[in-house]
Amino acid sequence: MAWRCAPCVPANSRRSFLRDKIINPILRPELHVGLHQAPRGILLFGPPGTGKTTLAKWMAASSGASFFEVTPSSIISKFHGETETLIKALFKVAEADSPSLVFIDEIDSLLGKRREKEDDTSIRMKNQLLQMMDGVSSCSGDKVLVVVGATNRPDMLDEAAIRRLSKRVLVPLPDFDARRVLIRTVLEKQSTGGCTLSDQELGDLSSRLEKWSGSDIRSLCVSASERSYDETVAKFGGIQNVPSRAAFRPISFSDFLAALEEVRPSCTSEESLRFFDEWAKAHGAL
């Protein structure tokens, strides 16, 4: 359940803010007391596939904190009272393994706006989770526990949850420079031939991927790599005849051009992208 390995650091200007306000206070809690202590709740929000989970893992790895990842399916039980018990156990273990970062993905599914005819099970679950989040702020001085929530729908969050997630960070779609870095990193780390694209090709490709998320770009790289794979298998007359991974040729710019005919970005609506900027301004987000 705990995660301590360093993930790929997200290429993103918010890193400096997160390092100063979250990572450093976790690393040196004795220097960050009172008003300078680490925030107990953080909300990462933005379009799907922008790397919110990766960003949370990076914060944990950079600060040496244990990483506890929670999804709605992992914590909601059909048995009466078991969900509340699981929530209590999670926070108890996280506090014991301090410093800890509890990452709640799709937090709007757990702490969505209260409805007029909400069932008792949902109400108890929300109250228990909010109560445990309140308890985080009263941890003793030598215990550091930070709750990080992630969502694509911040407008669906209950106001009580938003108040507890006092630091709110918009994780936007990658800009041109971030797209260049991401493409190069994926090719160098996950393809046999590394990145053989020229700077001009890399720039040309990055300019074509405006409004593409990190997840979309990785899907494009996978599609481009399939052309190298298929060509190599055909060349050797079947997968059983391919001598080694080194036989696969590097992914070329033409492979990406062909892949662009098949792969499409998941978030292209100007209205949906504008929504995140407006929500950030309305709720004091970075």
Automatic annotation (TrEMBL):
> Known PROSITE patterns for this protein?
AAA
Enzyme Commission numbers on file: 3.6.1.3
Q: Which keywords are on file for this protein?
A: ATP-binding, Hydrolase, Nucleotide-binding
User: What is the uppermost EC class here?
Assistant: hydrolase
InterPro entries listed in its UniProt record: AAA+_ATPase, ATPase_AAA_core, ATPase_AAA_CS, MT-severing_AAA_ATPase, P-loop_NTPase
Q: Which residues form the AAA+ ATPase domain?
A: 38-175
User: Which GO molecular function terms does the record list?
Assistant: ATP binding; ATP hydrolysis activity
Q: Which Pfam families match?
A: AAA (PF00004)
SUPFAM superfamilies membership: P-loop containing nucleoside triphosphate hydrolases
Q: Which domain of life is it from?
A: Eukaryota
| UniProt-listed SMART domains | AAA
Report the sequence similarity comment from the record: Belongs to the AAA ATPase family.
What PANTHER family does UniProt report for this protein, alphabetically? AAA DOMAIN-CONTAINING, FIDGETIN-LIKE PROTEIN 1
Descriptive protein name: ATPase, AAA family protein
Query: Which organism's genome codes for this protein?
Result: Toxoplasma gondii CAST
Q: What is the lineage of its organism?
A: Eukaryota, Sar, Alveolata, Apicomplexa, Conoidasida
